[in-house]
Amino acid sequence: xxxxxxxxxxxxxxxxxxxxxxxxxxxxxxxxxxxxxxxxxxxxxxxxxxxxxxxxxxxxxxxxxxxxxxxxxxxxxxxxxxxxxxxxxxxxxxxxxxxxxxxxxxxxxxxxxxxxxxxxxxxxxxxxxxxxxxxxxxxxxxxxxxxxxxxxxxxxxxxxxxxxxxxxxxxxxxxxxxxxxxxxxxxxxxxxxxxxxxxxxxxxxxxxxxxxxxxxxxxx
Length: 220
What we know:
Aminopeptidase, 6 helices, eight-stranded mixed beta sheet, 28% helix, alpha+beta
């Protein structure tokens, strides 16, 4: 085993993919973002997030101002390459370059990109940047243990389940048990192959529907 090395601290940047682009979340994105998350399911989409659902673009702007003051949160807009519009957001958090570890969290993928190749590529772009550009040893995913869709997504994306922190947090006057998942740097080369094969253009029909499932075998 090689001697563990610290990672490079992340900086805001633009990450380009085939189907999406990740760029620093800013006020110019908020109108499109609100449109993407607004609707009958807006409360459901925020059920397990730290913040409540915004009622307007102005409330979303207030939230962003507060989020920008947190040094341990780096929010990125998920831009649909086909439309140029922001369809969601995700963050780098629990940033610990001294330990070579970063978490992806506070994910809010709107109705146009959730459960599509855009969401998968958005996760892939983060993972590739975290491991290959920044030199991290560990990439984390955490969620409320009651959040079954998030746990299914973590498994689909190739994260390894590590356990549950019981009575981890109190959020909105309710207990949260936190499920922990991770992928490691020595697992990434194999995971990357599965992502890149699935994301190939010829794996999708003219409507953007995948011809195969993203099935990543456990490597941990």
